[in-house]
Amino acid sequence: MDLSQPRFTRHRDSTYHMTPNLYVANCGPAVGISVEAIKSFFSSFGEVAGVHAADKSGSRIIVCFLEVSAAEAAYRTLNGCRCEALGGRILHVQYSEQQQPLKVDSNDSLPVSLFSSELAIPGIYLLHDFISSEEEQELLSAVDSRPWKSLSKRRVQHYGYEFLYETRNVDSKNFIGELPSFVIPVLEKLVKFHGEGGNNSKLVDQLTVNEYPPGIGLSPHIDTHSAFDNMIFSLSLSGTCIMEFRKYLPWHSSTAAVDVKSLQECSSSLRKSIFLPARSMLLLSGEGRYAWHHYIPHHKVDIVRGDGIRRSSRRVSFTFRKLSLRVSFGYDRLEEVLANVNFHNIVILEWRFEYTKQESNLMLQVLIQVNRHKHGDRERCHEKWQPSKMVTCYGSRKGRTLGRER
């Protein structure tokens, strides 16, 4: 009996049309009835072309006749009846349709990059074989020895600060401990990957571990601008996937998850994708971090340059972030924040989230200092800025567009 992926489906509604194929429940190897016995018994109604597994249970089968009349005779005789020839079991029979094989529309399929240089999104970098196979197994063993938190479709672990999925933020006052010791080798490599020396604890302070079963992906989103710093690192373990990036019309909220269909229907959106191998490290920064939604399609098989790559039984990702000054310092330390701002090099791209009055006052003062430091008192566009408004800057060299309120 063919135990591969099911090729048939049963009729699920009350209206049906007859086919030469029958879905038979309560019958099969799992309940002690051999394929030979099944074929021999059903041959009494007409010539049997084949017997197939309906699913992986072993107790539901598909019987394929050459003639519809043979299937009709078997259906009328057996449905809901006890069959002594098949162990006295009550059989539940329905007509079945043969499923059409899935096709990939080459005109709609998105080209998949293998390297970040091919992807060509500023700020996105992919490093293959970031860790060894031995290091991968050590990391997986370490997280599997610790308790998982179950969500609706995946399991997670949080370190440093708990990631809050409802708000896509963290509670900076709820510190749950230092990052675990088993990620120290990864942190040391992150410093080298980033191109800086020094204390690796300054680079990240929050870790979320996600375990994805086959077919489960990630909804399109941008990690909250205000919650985390510029760089977000994601290490893929145990399995592969495709990650898609989408840049679309500006009226979508930059911090909320977006409906996939609405993005697909946005004719002016840009779409790119990249293949993430196991043990690879992905860095999101700059434009790739702030302007592009990232998204993992909910597929069990990814199509990469014409080849189908089946996802493994699990994919585990380690996502490293660092809380931003805005979250971790609060708003009573403006002088310290300003002391750490390099006004000559600062480039303000865009804020697209609502501030509270306290937050707005802080950002207003920071922007005033930026404007004065770079252009002196000649440019007084900041005088009309109002607190509690969303301020948007599209790369203005003199900050004039910072006065736009929405």
Automatic annotation (TrEMBL):
Top-level taxon: Eukaryota
Pfam families cross-referenced by the UniProt entry: 2OG-FeII_Oxy_2 (PF13532)
PANTHER family cross-referenced by the UniProt entry: 2-OXOGLUTARATE AND FE-DEPENDENT OXYGENASE FAMILY PROTEIN, OXYGENASE-RELATED
CDD domains linked to this entry: RRM_SF
Signal peptide boundaries: none
Keyword RNA-binding: yes
UniProt keywords, alphabetically: RNA-binding
Stretches assigned to the RRM domain: 20-98
Name the record gives this protein: Uncharacterized protein
GO function term, MF aspect, one: RNA binding
Transmembrane segments: none
Fe2OG dioxygenase domain boundaries: 203-324
GO BP terms in the entry: demethylation
Family: Belongs to the alkB family.
